[in-house]
Amino acid sequence: MNYKQFVLLLTVMLFVGSIKAQDHKDLLKNKITEDLIEKSILPLADWKPFPGAGKWTQIPDSIKQKYIKEGEALLDTKWESVPATSYLEFAATGKRADDKYLGAIPDGLSTLIMAELFENKGRFIHPMIDCIWTACEMSLWANASSPLFRSEDPQKLPDISNGKLPIVDLHCGKISGAIAWAHYFFKDQFDLISPVINKRIKEEINRRILTPCLERSDFFWMGYDGRTVNNWNPWINSNWLICTLLIEDNVQRRNKSIAKIVESTNFFLNGYKNDGGCDEGSTYWSQAPGSLFEILQLLNSASANKINLFHEKIISKMGLFISQMYIANDRFVNYADASSRVKTSPGIVYNYGQTIGDSVMMKFGSYLLQKDGGYISGHINRVLWGLASYPEIVKIEPQEPMFQDSWFPDLQIMTARYKNGSNSGFYITAKGGVNGGPHSHNDAGNFMLFYNGNPILVDAGVGVYSGATFGPGRYKIWTMQSAYHNLPAINGEMQRHGEDSAAKNVKYSCNSKIVHFDMDIAGAYPKEACVKQWNRNITFNRAAQTVLIDENYELTKFIKPTELNFLVYAKPIIDPVKGIILFELDNKSMVTMNYKSGVFNPSLEEVKMDSKIKAAWGEKLYRLKLTLNNSKLKNKVQISFKEGKI
């Protein structure tokens, strides 16, 4: 056996509890010291990352016109502050009605900034000022649903007289970051209209983000309380950094703020395992690793390349995750609170790939740009960095990333397709994992199946966020429950939530012909399930184009028939006599699901979906139930999937 064959046949195994210690602990804190910050960060007046209005000559006129047209649609907008009733409605019903008001400010401001940068006639200056002024008049730049607001203001309405420094959450970050960029580009024009505008901008950004972030360390997203932090950390820190670099004119405070941003972001990076996988799902890649990249990108630019961590292995691995989660036809692997349809900035993907030297990411960024018609949308910071690289992105060959295999041993997520670089044949992804974390579902042992790029067995993702989504009622929502994933209900019991609810004895191996993924998911179920072991063994035979699911289980007691649940994309044809379930896919190809006749009683029900899930999957999903026909305490059953009609 030569070396290449050895690598191809190498079996990678992971047993829960044997996870390797982090190689990157305190990486940011150790590499970006206070001394380096003081010596490297350019003075406020010297950092000029982007050209001003009328100087973006590298952007084609056709693209500029798209941004100008978007801006024209906002010329007569009457910007609205968050009504008191929105806060009161959330307290009463849990409905998040204030998102549209808070989200409109940074989104609208980004559009107006780009329109003026490209047209350079002053048409968008006054609408920009109106947008900024409305934000400045708001009592709070935070959601009623924000845990920070709910914990600090029991009156249900923002109390600006309570004497506390304002809270800083996601919306505060996004709004302040957008206003800081508006000030960077158009402060001279604002001064010609009234010096009060820039004065107000600086006062509000200082009051709402710079001072509270510098003087408080009790915001949970900062990480100082020892809890694991999520995407809020880099998402807010990136905007705090933008405001610090663009607005803070006190050198001592500026350096102190940057050092604290680095320290806080270090807590986020410390929460990542060595495989670089995003445990919040592919949807949150943009806000988690993507925002971390923005922080490193800003520090690199503001230090004239003296602060550069793009060569670090963990930074590369975190970036590659989004490419490895790509399935086909603009769908992504969507465990946890992720959606099958992910909106990812072409600029972030390309620039991330370019800095770590990965051509797959660079080509993927080019593909995303082409798919979006050459238009980069989103927060102004991402639009600016993406357009700054525009000439490079359009020169790169656009290509979807289609890895033949990927394996994240810490997340315990695998993906495998029939052929590298192609969406033909079967594609399967499966996970072991833990039912814990703010965005996790009860889904240890779940898997998804596609054929020729078409979905067969899916994960619904998450519905419209409400007060219950991150509250005590989270696991009463069907999208979070194991019975609405491709998992068994054992003795009538679904999986439970918690850090000790996990798959065990997880083993993964692959070569050019066979992929194996095995685990015991009994530990994810409550004691009422009376399950001693439930070994789920998944085998993907590439050569034969078959997928086998073997369920080998042992119960301590029989209470009620066990059900195998499958969430299916399209309504299948069921033949219970033959033990055949036929899936006719969008491109008229066929996949047959087989089981031994008489072992199961099949049934099908339509799943009720909200607008967010319909946007990802269309009007209907179905839950297929295979109810076991026996009361054996020890048993083995098999489900198989084959291409074609049998």
Structure commentary:
The protein has 646 residues and is an alpha+beta fold. Among the domains are: 56-206, no CATH class; 405-643, Beta-galactosidase, Chain A, domain 5 (Distorted Sandwich), CATH 2.70.98. It has 19 helices and 19 strands. It has helices at residues 3-9, 27-31, 34-40, 61-72, 84-93, 99-119, 125-137, 147-152, 170-193, 195-215, 232-246, 251-270, 289-302, 313-324, 346-356, 359-371, 380-388, 390-395, 611-617, and strands at 326-328, 331-332, 405-408, 413-417, 426-431, 447-451, 454-457, 488-489, 504-510, 514-520, 531-541, 546-555, 563-568, 573-575, 580-584, 590-594, 600-607, 621-628, 634-643. Strands 9-10-11-12-19-16-15-14 form an 8-stranded antiparallel β-sheet, with no helix packed on it. A 5-stranded antiparallel β-sheet has the order 3-4-5-6-7, with no helix packed on it. Strand 14 (573-575) and strand 15 form a beta hairpin. Helix 6 crosses helix 9 (170-193) and helix 6 packs parallel to helix 17. The radius of gyration is 26 Å and the shape is globular. The model is unreliable at 1-19 (pLDDT under 50).
> Uncertain spans, ≥5 residues at pLDDT below 50?
1-19
Query: Structural class, from secondary structure content?
Result: alpha+beta
The gyration radius over C-alpha positions equals 26 Å
**CATH architectural category of the domain at 405-643:** Distorted Sandwich
Question: What is the CATH topology descriptor of the domain at 405-643?
Answer: Beta-galactosidase, Chain A, domain 5
How many beta-strand runs?
19
Main sheet attributes: strand count, strand direction, barrel closure: 8 strands, antiparallel
Shape from CA axes? globular
Mean pLDDT: 93
**Separation of the first and last Cα atoms:** 38 Å
What CATH first level of the domain at 405-643 would be assigned? Mainly Beta
| Proportion of residues in extended strands | 15-25%
Strand order of the largest sheet: 9-10-11-12-19-16-15-14
- How many individual helices? 19
Q: Helicity level, as a percent range?
A: 25-40%
